[in-house]
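Before a computer can learn anything about folding, someone has to put a protein's shape into writing. The outcome of that step, for a single protein, is printed below:
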Amino acid sequence: MENLNFALFTEWSAYATLFFGVWAIAAFLFKWGIRFRLVGTTGFMVVLTIGLFGLSLGLFRHSVIPGAVRYTLVYDNAANMTVVAVKPDITSTEVEATLRQAADDLFAYGRVGRAGDRFTVRLRTVIHPEPGVSEPLYLGQVRRSISARDDAELDIQIDQNNLAKLPPRESIS
């Protein structure tokens, strides 16, 4: 999905708002029959322009980390801890990239924490060592600032012992 340029949309919406506003004023001056419709249209355009301006402030930022795989949110306490799950056919480099992606995606300013708290994202998978047995494996975790979006000091820890327990890629169906 490509990035949407809400600033450009806001600019064009503002032009349209001014256009309809001028027409509404002209309609009142010349007592046209559509004057009240033009007032309604102008009001709608004002609301639309304000909404687009809000979106242009960058409230929805999504970055894509190369090498990250799809994950599923398993647990989120809405404060300082989340757990995400991936398929068991993952490599060490994909674990690191996916941890970075999840830490960026799941960060929110509304998370609750005390000063100095860290936001932790744990990554796990489920393997089946024998039929009828499921074993969850934690492959790693990332800890980041709970209050700063652009945290350059991500503490990424990968559990190499659990990564070695994963079945080879070609044996996974």
